[in-house]
Amino acid sequence: MPERLVIRYDGVGQPLRVWRTTANGEGFVAVRPDAASRAPGLPVWVIVPAECVGYARTRLAIHQRDQLMRAVPFALEDQIAEPIESLQFAISSGVEGSQEAWWIGMDRLRAWLEDLASRSVRPEVLLSEAALAATSGESESPAMDVWTEDGGRRVVLVQGETRTALPPEIWEEWQTANADAVQTSSSPAGEPLESMLLRAAARAPVRPDGNLLAGTFAPHHATAPLRRLWRVAALLAVAAGALWTGWLYADTLRLEQRRAALTEQQRDTYRSVVPGAVQIPDPAGQMRALVNGQGGNQDDFFALTSEAASLLGSMPQLHLEQLDWNAGTLELTLIGPDVSTLDAYRERCAQLPGLEADLGTVGNVPGGSRGRVSVRRSATR
User: Comparing C-alpha atoms, which of 31, 26, 51, 24 is closest to residue 199?
Assistant: First the structure.
């Protein structure tokens, strides 16, 4: 049996009755009420009066846990006097595909937990007496089980029907109304309730059915693994954000360096076109002004230059010696190994949609031929 503390709790301000597993782990021994504060690492089970916790059984053709947690309360809505939105539910699978539900008012449960916390008690399990009795596995037949304590109060289990506590003043009336169940009772005289509870606590699994501490009321340490996962996810998200920000910053620097290099290339190009130019604060703007002064559309100049340069880059055997712009015509003075190579470049330019190209003024130079290729927009475009 796992080591644990078992506390019987009767309500806010009421004295606690506390038991701890024995040294051999085979039973419980009564300890001082402050045992929970003196053994902070020990699991604590709190057992509450059965009459404070509702119970019902239903049958829904649902197998997924999260869907059951949402559907069962609504299936029992007609049997519960309080609004189901104000209740905390514990739901487990019963026999033959049924579901069992225990519930308690959230306000009451919250008040109990605050009272227990003020006494340094932080339970991980909170069960009604009837739920613990059912968890123990002592009542597997349809028989009625009855346990009693001083004063005549009785806890009653009728499998599949009733799990509650009855005060002495209505016990006789209840017996008369449930005569069939009483006749099959395994303990009609009512054995001591306390001994049953401790025996059931010793036999109960680590995660018993009917535990009302779930969802928003789950103990802090029970949700620790999930919180650790969320912390890891949050750290990964922060790391990803930092990497993304760093990449953006590095890419911005790279683009800025590329912009500066292109600007310098534009200045060099402008100096080659306008010898003697010294101050060139805006080479692109000054180049546009220069193009406009030569006639034609500046957009055509840059578009034609881009297309011509792209083709020129695919023919490394050609060398650009000079580039001129004259009233809408781009004139490229090229040097190549022979005339056929120059004409091949002209033909490729002419094959581009909307362009015309001519080859003229061809002459020989050391190691090859020089020719002027004129590229313009087609008049029929």
Answer: 26
